[in-house]
Specification:
Cofactor: Mg(2+)
EC number: 6.3.2.-
Strand content: 15-25%
CATH architecture of the largest domain: 3-Layer(aba) Sandwich
InterPro entries: Mur-like_cat_sf, Mur_ligase_C, Mur_ligase_C_dom_sf, Mur_ligase_cen, Mur_ligase_N, MurE/MurF_N, UDP-N-AcMur-Glu-dNH2Pim_ligase
Family: Belongs to the MurCDEF family. MurE subfamily.
Largest sheet: 11 strands, mixed
Number of helices: 16
Number of domains: 3
Function: Catalyzes the addition of an amino acid to the nucleotide precursor UDP-N-acetylmuramoyl-L-alanyl-D-glutamate (UMAG) in the biosynthesis of bacterial cell-wall peptidoglycan.
């Protein structure tokens, strides 16, 4: 693609050099640059791409997009913009020919529930005969290719490339998690969503957003983007959990079709007659196209909300209720979410990705209903995250658990003991028994040794993750594998 065509939609402050260049690829990481590529210099949280310009040129870059004024490089075209991260998204859309306009794209945002909802939606669309791609925290699924994900929402250039692959493989739908970080950092800029789902919001992620107001503002960007589209506005939908705090903020910024869902308040899609068990639940759902019974192969009231979101999105796309119900009958959950492990033990082991106080509170309240015995929780908090929530996490977990094992969960550059002590401050408010064991394998082993007949052990935070990240190393770690090795004597 000619550089002049590639930069058509870019707001440019200055051009030095020739725009009549043939660009064969674009990227923001100098290590991935090849011959005749455009290198976009992004100032990140750790590295500044402007410091890697010469490396990119040595690898074959013929043009640069920069935010800063830089030294002239002979034979290299330099394009200066205000925001190179946003420019990357605009360029990626242009380079990959706006793939989101050729798919039915559904985005899910909120503090919790995103992953489960996307997997539910994929199951429903697949049941209805539609080829469906999925992008999110656990996996990226494009056709027959299933790859582990490194972030909730990938960088814009990788996202547009993935959507382009879905188009080429003739996918009908794409369902994706849209994180507040992605919205704040313009990763989904230019994505043309057909529907957006809001699940819930709590006081998280202030390590980037600094305060709740900014966090809320970032989340709302997904819904505001529905109002700016090349697609027909009458076929766009905002799908909002009416029971969630701050739901009105999302309703008020919406200018397309509104579908509300919930349990407590009047909603267009509403659950009634909920029956909950440890391993399953059922409910009647009332919708604008009729009512039906839904059976889920896992528990938790919060999963009723997740199912309602998926049902609401599915009916906006013309999926009949009988197919939706049938899809749920066959669906056994998203990777690492509410997974019960059976090794012949006389107590229950649950693996779950819950890693913030809102998600932990939800699953613990649910599990508390199913044991008159001990509820033992293994958990930690990620390093380089907003540390003010750690005491709140400790208090929430202490409120519902009988015994707590505080451990490490990707401490990164932080001291795992320091993180544990910050959690401990909240646990102490509840007067519950606890222990700190920063070695996560030993922490899990201790929890299982502590468990007795009828108890429930929740191993929270990592779900399907296969790594434990420290400041100077990354080691293989999977909670489910650890449990299996303990019971098989490995």
């Amino acid at each position: 693609m000619k550089l002049s065509e590639l930069t058509t939609n870019l707001e440019i402050k200055e051009i030095i050099g020739d725009l009549n260049l043939n660009i064969k690829g674009i990227y923001h990481n100098s290590r991935e640059i090849k011959r005749d590529f455009l290198f976009i210099c992004i100032k990140g949280f750790t590295f500044d791409g402007h410091n890697f310009i010469d490396e990119a040129i040595n690898r074959g870059a013929v043009a640069l997009v920069v935010e800063k004024e830089i030294l002239f490089r002979p034979g290299i075209t330099i394009i200066r913009v205000d925001n190179s991260r946003k420019a990357l998204a605009i360029l990626a859309n242009q380079f990959y020919d706006f793939p989101s306009r050729k798919l039915k794209l559904i985005g899910v945002t909120g503090t919790n529930g995103k992953t489960t909802i996307t997997y539910m939606l994929r199951a429903i669309f697949q049941e209805a005969g539609f080829k469906t791609g999925l992008l999110g925290t656990a996996q990226n699924i494009i056709g027959d290719n299933i790859n582990s994900s490194k972030m909730t929402t990938m960088e814009s250039v990788d996202l547009q490339k993935a959507l382009k692959e879905m188009v080429e493989q003739k996918n009908n739908f794409a369902v994706m998690e849209v994180s507040s970080h992605a919205l704040q950092l313009s990763r989904v800029e230019g994505c043309d969503f057909d529907a957006a789902i809001f699940t819930n919001i709590s006081k998280e992620h202030f390590e980037i957003h600094k305060n709740f107001s900014n966090y809320l503002k970032a989340k709302k960007k997904l819904f505001l983007s529905l109002n700016r589209s090349k697609k027909e506005a009458s076929k766009k939908f905002a799908i909002i959990n009416i029971d969630a705090e701050h739901s009105k903020d999302f309703i008020d910024c919406n200018k397309v079709n509104l579908i509300t869902y919930g349990i407590e308040k009047e909603a267009k899609v509403r659950a009634k007659k909920i029956k909950m068990k440890l391993k399953s639940l059922s409910f009647m759902v009332e919708t604008p196209i009729g009512d039906t019974e839904i059976l889920l192969n896992f528990g938790g009231k919060y999963n009723v909300y997740n199912a309602l979101a998926a049902i609401a999105a599915a009916i906006t796309q013309g999926i009949p209720l009988n197919l939706i119900s049938r899809a749920f009958n066959k669906f056994y959950g998203a990777p690492g979410r509410y997974k019960l492990l059976e090794y012949g033990q006389n107590y229950t082991i649950v693996i779950d990705f819950a890693h913030n106080y809102h998600g932990l509170g939800s699953i613990l309240q649910n599990l508390r209903n199913f044991t008159p015995h001990k509820l033992i929780t293994v958990f930690g908090h990620g390093g380089e995250k907003y540390n003010k929530v750690r005491a709140t996490m400790g208090e929430v977990i202490g409120t519902y658990s009988d015994y707590l094992v505080i451990t490490a969960d990707n401490p990164k550059s932080e001291d795992p003991v320091k993180i544990a002590r910050e959690i401990e401050a909240g646990v102490k408010k509840t007067d519950k028994d606890y222990i700190i064991i920063t070695d996560r394998v030993e922490a899990i082993k201790h929890a299982l040794e502590k468990a007795e007949e009828g108890d429930i052990v929740l191993i929270a935070g990592k779900g399907p993750e296969n790594e434990q990240v420290y400041h100077n190393k990354v080691i293989h770690h999977n909670d489910e594998e650890v449990v299996k090795n303990i019971f098989t004597g490995r």
